[in-house]
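Morning - shikimate-3-phosphate inputs below, output right after.
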Amino acid sequence: MTNIVLIGMTGSGKTTIGKELASRLKFPFIDMDDYIEEQAGQSIPELFEQGEELFRSLETDVCIKLADSTDTVISTGGGAVLKPENRKWLKQTGMIVWIDRPINLIVKDIETAHRPLLKNGTDALYTLFEKRRPIYEALADVTVRNDQSLSETVDDILNQLN
Ligand code: S3P
C-alpha cells in the first residue's frame, strides 16, 4: 500500500484517527502541523501572528516534501487543500481519505486554543465548512463519516481501502 493522506475540517479527528490507523498498519505517522512547527521552530499561532500567508507557504513546502514519503499515514491541516498546487501534491502523495465529521459534533468538542482561525470562537467554523466541504468532497478517494467510535472509524477506512 502507498501513503494514506487524511483531509478534513479542523477538529474532525484527523490526528487521532491518523495515529490509530498508522499503528494498525505499522506505518509511520506524520502530522503536517507538527512537522511545520518543527521545521519552523515556532508554533502555529506564532506563525499566524506573522501573517497567514507565511503559514500557507510553509504548508505548501511540506506538501511537496511529503510527496516523497512511502507507506506513511499523513494527517493534513484543515486548510492544506485550499491551494490547487497543494491538492496536486497531496493527490500525488497517496490515497486521500476525507474525515467527514458533522459540524455540530466538531463545534461541541473542538479545542480552539491552538487554532488561530478560531480565535474569536467557533462561529467561523460554519463559513470555513461551507467553503471547504466541496473541496474535500472533490479531492477524496474515500470518505469516512466520523460520528462513531475511533476503532469503528479506522475499521471503516481500512475496509474501504482494501
Ligand atoms: C487550519 C487548521 C489547523 C492548522 C491551522 C490552520 C485551517 O489544523 O493547520 O491552524 O485552515 O483549518 P487542524 O485541521 O489540525 O486543526
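Note: Helices lie at 14-25, 32-40, 44-49, 52-66, 84-93, 103-109, 124-139, 150-161.

O.
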